[in-house]
Design goal:
- This protein is α+β, with helices and mostly antiparallel strands and about 160 residues long.
- The protein is built from five helices and eight strands; from the N terminus they run ααββββββαββαα.
- It is globular, with a radius of gyration of 16 Å.
């Protein structure tokens, strides 16, 4: 589904406020917003599966998701955190080219604005500063995940 004009304005505002996109020209952000797709998921549904190929970047319009690492060294499921309206996920695998590093599950009905891999790559190629900002967030998220996994293992 295509976002409405009101939703597109909200996405544009959200992107402008996001550290990733602070250095991007407004006309480029508007072009990016035009490429988004609106998708809804019911509560309890898996949006991304750990190990799957990376195909999309998600912005949460409404609802809440939980992030899980399904197998630590002890074979246990580890809760890495929750995200809600205005947050995003799916960027790590898109940046690294690696399979999805976590599973994302809806904790309530959710609406997402989705940017597919080809569009995401295009904006990164035209705006290297976004890649730099995302690398910083990637490092923070990786460290947070690593810390939680170690805590779960008791080491």
């Amino acid at each position: 589904m295509v976002p409405t004009s009101v939703e597109k304005k909200w996405i544009l505002t959200l992107l402008k406020e996001n550290d990733f996109f602070f250095d991007v020209e407004e006309n480029q952000l508007e072009a990016l917003v035009q490429m988004t797709e609106k998708i809804s998921y019911p509560e309890g549904e898996s949006v991304l599966q750990e190990g799957d190929p990376a195909e999309s970047f998600f912005i949460i319009s409404s609802g809440r998701v939980s992030i899980w690492h399904l197998k630590n060294l002890l074979g246990k499921k580890v809760h890495l955190g929750d995200l809600n309206k205005g947050s995003f996920f799916g960027e790590i695998a898109l940046l690294t080219g690696q399979p999805r590093s976590a599973t994302v599950i809806t904790e309530e009905p959710c609406v997402f604005y989705v940017l597919h891999k080809s569009h995401f790559k295009s904006i990164l190629e035209n705006n290297p500063s976004i890649a730099t900002a995302m690398e910083y967030v990637l490092q923070r998220r990786w460290f947070s995940s690593y810390t939680k996994l170690r805590e779960q293992q008791g080491t």
